[in-house]
Amino acid sequence: MEQNIRVADMTPGQHIQGFYILKDIRNKTSSKGSPFLSAKIMDATGETEAKMWDYSGPLNAEDSGRVMLVRGEVTEFNGALQFIIQRIRPAEAGDRYDVRELVPSAPIDQEAALSEVREILASMEDGEYRTLCQAMLERHLDSFCTIPAAKSVHHAFRSGLLMHTLNMLRAADFLAGLYGEVIDRSLLLAGTFLHDLGKEREMVRSELGMVRDYSVPGMLLGHLYMGAKEAAELAQEQGMAEEKAMLLQHLILSHHGQPEFGAAVEPQCAESELLSLIDLMDSRMEIYAEQIADLKPGEFSGKIFSIGKAVYRHHNSE
Amino acid sequence: MEQNIRVADMTPGQHIQGFYILKDIRNKTSSKGSPFLSAKIMDATGETEAKMWDYSGPLNAEDSGRVMLVRGEVTEFNGALQFIIQRIRPAEAGDRYDVRELVPSAPIDQEAALSEVREILASMEDGEYRTLCQAMLERHLDSFCTIPAAKSVHHAFRSGLLMHTLNMLRAADFLAGLYGEVIDRSLLLAGTFLHDLGKEREMVRSELGMVRDYSVPGMLLGHLYMGAKEAAELAQEQGMAEEKAMLLQHLILSHHGQPEFGAAVEPQCAESELLSLIDLMDSRMEIYAEQIADLKPGEFSGKIFSIGKAVYRHHNSE
Amino acid sequence: MEQNIRVADMTPGQHIQGFYILKDIRNKTSSKGSPFLSAKIMDATGETEAKMWDYSGPLNAEDSGRVMLVRGEVTEFNGALQFIIQRIRPAEAGDRYDVRELVPSAPIDQEAALSEVREILASMEDGEYRTLCQAMLERHLDSFCTIPAAKSVHHAFRSGLLMHTLNMLRAADFLAGLYGEVIDRSLLLAGTFLHDLGKEREMVRSELGMVRDYSVPGMLLGHLYMGAKEAAELAQEQGMAEEKAMLLQHLILSHHGQPEFGAAVEPQCAESELLSLIDLMDSRMEIYAEQIADLKPGEFSGKIFSIGKAVYRHHNSE
Amino acid sequence: MEQNIRVADMTPGQHIQGFYILKDIRNKTSSKGSPFLSAKIMDATGETEAKMWDYSGPLNAEDSGRVMLVRGEVTEFNGALQFIIQRIRPAEAGDRYDVRELVPSAPIDQEAALSEVREILASMEDGEYRTLCQAMLERHLDSFCTIPAAKSVHHAFRSGLLMHTLNMLRAADFLAGLYGEVIDRSLLLAGTFLHDLGKEREMVRSELGMVRDYSVPGMLLGHLYMGAKEAAELAQEQGMAEEKAMLLQHLILSHHGQPEFGAAVEPQCAESELLSLIDLMDSRMEIYAEQIADLKPGEFSGKIFSIGKAVYRHHNSE
Amino acid sequence: MEQNIRVADMTPGQHIQGFYILKDIRNKTSSKGSPFLSAKIMDATGETEAKMWDYSGPLNAEDSGRVMLVRGEVTEFNGALQFIIQRIRPAEAGDRYDVRELVPSAPIDQEAALSEVREILASMEDGEYRTLCQAMLERHLDSFCTIPAAKSVHHAFRSGLLMHTLNMLRAADFLAGLYGEVIDRSLLLAGTFLHDLGKEREMVRSELGMVRDYSVPGMLLGHLYMGAKEAAELAQEQGMAEEKAMLLQHLILSHHGQPEFGAAVEPQCAESELLSLIDLMDSRMEIYAEQIADLKPGEFSGKIFSIGKAVYRHHNSE
Amino acid sequence: MEQNIRVADMTPGQHIQGFYILKDIRNKTSSKGSPFLSAKIMDATGETEAKMWDYSGPLNAEDSGRVMLVRGEVTEFNGALQFIIQRIRPAEAGDRYDVRELVPSAPIDQEAALSEVREILASMEDGEYRTLCQAMLERHLDSFCTIPAAKSVHHAFRSGLLMHTLNMLRAADFLAGLYGEVIDRSLLLAGTFLHDLGKEREMVRSELGMVRDYSVPGMLLGHLYMGAKEAAELAQEQGMAEEKAMLLQHLILSHHGQPEFGAAVEPQCAESELLSLIDLMDSRMEIYAEQIADLKPGEFSGKIFSIGKAVYRHHNSE
Fold first, then answer.
1. Is the pLDDT of residue D89 over 60?
2. Helices marked H in C147-269 — which ranges?
3. What is the least distance, in Å, from the CA of C37 to any CA of chain A?
4. Whose CA is closest to E136, among E155, E121, E115, E116?
């Protein structure tokens, strides 16, 4: 009996016991009339089909997404792995497992990343923007460090928002220098830090922090509106000058670039224009990174829905 | 010397004294080198070219849009009227004239219209929506009654917003009955009343209430965002239930129907869908009314920019 | 043995005999080589899977859509109901059943609705338009009262056209008053009544009145052209003045609003503009009604193909 | 005094008497207060500015487009020709001039072209289509031979429709052979001959046959609908089989190819698809011919509105 | 035992031996755990499902697309044919079969078609264009005669490019005469011949000449660029005048007509405009031909992805 | 008499002699019949209207764009400056003036910029890419340092291409580090350096290096195609590996990002995606910089054609 083998390392014939997440649980009936459980087991490295024969409960669809202690055997069926469960129970208080090994997470050091965000915020020349951003960070600290940046598409994993925001802050910092003639560095950095904070309320997450769906306010109001409104309220509390508060709201409301991509208004100052391009650039680069990871050099992906085209992994980039 | 002849009634040869608005004032020099003033005089009935020969000031471009006491003669030049000014001075305290005769206004009885708006608001079944709308009306009473509904396009005259809102409330009241199965009457009426209140901050107006331009917040934030945010803040003060406050914001944010027409989010409940259609319907009908007023039966207009097509006045509709 | 249990009320274990429609009939062979019949049984309340084991005919795919007398047992398979047929024969002359209980129908009183349509037509001020509409109603009386308004999307049930047209006439009647300055009430009502009559020829219906498909003329010519042409021919027979006949045709040809939504020409008079908006409004409200009926308060639908977005059922609208 | 010099051949200093069309007539007043007439004189070869000093009538804007007997002198003003009129009167009964020299006409032999059209129609294998086309030709003979194919854009000259239709018939005849497997030659030729006949009612022409504007039915119904309806009525009179009549209507209704280019329905059979492409091809080739005529080899035109791009005349095509 | 029965002629019960292509080979395991081979067998007339029970290799997915000598029995499963393989081996040197009977090919006489292409090229008046085209033909002779014109959509069979190019040359030859005023015949014919030659490098083909996929250069550079570049290099070797070489490249780069259809530049001379229309016409007519072949008169196809609409086969075109 | 006053510093009353460029020269006739010259005089700081009374030649339209020695007086006409020329002659060999003071130039130190470009090229890890770029730089050295990056829109001044390319190289260098996981630094830098080199042949320049128009090859082939082809030919000469040469061409062909913005193919690897975004970013930032230079804080520009919206200059960015 092997312990906690990672899903990506499973091979037929192994007898395994370990903690996994059970997804897509369904109670079914075989053609001979006997009940069984169909599901997927997953951890941060991947997922595979699972069956438990002659099982009629109590676990059911409502338990999907929970951590389970599972014992069973890895088999093969029609060319794919299938995990045959022999015993199963939900994880309990006192069980010892590491959530980060079960849920896909950003490939970053979370503490170091947070420190770097704090440093960049501390470097802002404009005191009002700096104070507001720092207050906002403390208010949303936990979710800022852990939520994904999207439901799917890109950075759709634990700490995705932190990784996405930090990358964008680094780019914004450099580009504020390159285009120093037209860019107010503090405004650009503040808008960059704040632009996706409204996503916390836009998504419904499972107890393990994975996005289950868009929330009702997320659908009816959107994260641009919610983020801009919260920033405006805090700016007013802090007595920020009206134009500066307005510019912050403008950057958040316009960061999707164009109405057809969800922008509530179009960028109309240099900082909002640049912010929308940095956001586009970072999400595109992450889409390429995620796609290329699954390709061999010389291969094309299939058509990717979010960008409407296939991508190529060339030999140089090994 | 005739007094206060309406611009639409002027004919060559008249000697006139009266109060008019002077627009587009420019100080020019003739080919012989003598200075003169070029402008337009207007009242609620129309406008015509005006010249004052051998005039070098003090009136200049900055005085455009002010009421003046003017004396002069109506002449004709190249087939069009031209008013030759002989004496001119800005209106002063104590002068007696009626602004409504000088500035184009909605063809409605303002007091009766306001009463009807109050009645419809008072008829809302939902106490929370009713209270919020009534508070909002008192807060914005003056501008609600006097501002235009747009810079141009439709209802671009004094009290245009009042006229537009009342017409829409009447339609909303009827349609809430016709589609009673899916429409919450109070929500629809509240959204209808509130939908354009953000326009007060979106436009810069002259002292006479005519729209001079979009304001900076109007350009960078838009009236949908500003209106939704104010409604949300008042709803919170009043302790309105969260979903109800969210629905109000959703109706305001989505009332342009589609992102390419400026909606911050798309309508996703029956009331927001219907509100966006009532708004479209009322603005279209007003565009037709304004265009048809200038056509003879059997005539087509030229192509109208805001709707991208010409309109026809048929003989039935006389 | 229970009689004529409605499909929506079936539960596993019931032994049932009754009249149902059989859809999607297919003759199949099991993995052991024995023939069986696979189909769906439906009535106005819903549909469910059905199987008849060891059945090799004579019923086959060509009998899909016919009324059958069925006896069998309700079972459950993989979490869904499955009706196991034991005996089956097509309905015969003399069988007693009510088509309205088998085919989904508009939730209206057909006779009352027709009376109201007649009243509104009779109220038209313009005698020529009134006469034409009344003649057209008598000519198409049966199909006007029974056909759906569409193959799918909205009002896709028996008497859907009657329900859709009546709702639109009510709205047109009210709005002709609200916009009396630019709307010729008789023209608007006539166009509203006539706008979808061409649908009779556009669709191929089963013997029970359900739309099976678009007809060949429906695909190659469209209901706008066919409806306008028939109205024009009747108008000519009645000696209607040329402009009035032309306006009727224009309203029919343009009622889809924009070329990309199927309009043969764009609306260019106030009545055609308003008609196209009333049509859009009534179809949208019906789509919401049909969707919301399947949702619980607080729930979103999935993305709806015809409108390209999801819709929300809020708690107010219970 | 030279007689009837063509406008394209005028040079400064000539004293001329001749028949010309006067366009864009306006009565103006000089800066010194004396009245004069401003207009353009044109014939089939071109047009130039014209002035008649100290002229106050009776000719005025309403006389634009009429043939005049003019005497005057060719001068030059700011680098362009200017015709100074000394005497002028409208042409009278008995005056001898050739309309074809005054109005731009298709560069074809009208009689030969008509003969060729008749031959192609006579060659149609299908008797019903042939009869209908021949009857339609006789009914519209005069206008078919003389009207332009468009108000502007392409073939916007006398006999433009004849030239356009003949070219398309030639192409259709050849392509019906090349794609004989999928093309019914008679149907394609019939659709080609009929496709633009509705243009006769779509345009308002001056007494000289030049298009002044779109007609009211042209705007509200369009030439596709009017042409299809007339063909349908004649087909019915002749007892044509229903599918064949339907196909003819389909070809006419769909010949603009796509809804956004004005097609009432999309082409859905091989003949309608091909007809729409032949129409596109012939209009494009004529646009190039008209543009290239004004260019020197090696030159680009400016951006042409109807096709949204510039065109190049290369050296090969001399 | 029957020999080499065509797939389209197979009926249940036949025992057959013959050469076929095996596609989509997969090694599977039955629910009882025994291995089997699942595949399709095809020849030029069609394809059908095939199974080989208790088969565990050596053939596998990598052998898909190869010619095999197969022995087995035709059976029926769930209303469709299923070929049960009893013996199988790959074709070997010395086996006698005709590739043209196994792979779908253009319905043309390849030798006659090539002769006609040679004749048309030889008829070009311009010696430089003629020389270049003839050299290009010899250089690509084999692939020009055998490759498909596309991966799917139209002419997606052996010798499809030859058939497509010849049809277009015939049309170009005729239309160069019809539009002789604006069309340089040699340039149009040269562009037509060259326009798709870049497709040779754009597609990856199996050993039997069927397109397996787009190649990497095909995806990253496209056949327009590759074709234009090769033509330019050969023109330079031959010392062709610069404008003429530029025009050839322009025709190739623009033959998709519009950027959204893949044109690298828009057509801007008469020949490039016409070439893009001839290409569109020939591909559309082939799509209709391929679709109509599968329809009965009076039937509509389903919606066809490449043209976004259904097509109709009428009774005339039998 | 003042010498070489910059156009931006001219005030009414000055008597000036100096070297200026004369643009838009036209020979006109006054209303009294006397000839005069109308033109604009410009230097790097701006331009103003100019007149020379009683002048009939020899200078004419063909001399537009040349440097002239001019003497005259600054006057005012209708609120704008007007330069009255008293003497004028074209600059001659031996005249001493600095072209950089007459033609608008990039606000950079040309030598330093070129050095930095050289350094970045020298830092490329990949020897093949480095060699090719360095060879290309030497081949195009002069034009690379002096031509504008566009005819208008952005960087439309002397050395605009150098400034644009250097800025993009700096950004590419930084971003290649930030996205090191997916970006091949050498490929990105090579593509960035090469992307606009085809512009040299795309534009026709005056003797002073200002863009007069697009060239014929620029219109018919485009700078993407010409640049990619030249790079490919040089790569082949140098024996570069095929995939690497293909990637370079792909980056150049796709750098406009989308077909509707002129991309010949869409970006499909991480480096081409990023290059297209860096190009978009640098051109946008320059548009903002050029627009904001003409605005006061708190002001909006008018609608800018190239980006379809107005831009705002806020108070922060002073």
1. yes
2. 160-178, 185-194, 199-202, 216-220, 222-237, 242-253
3. 18
4. E121
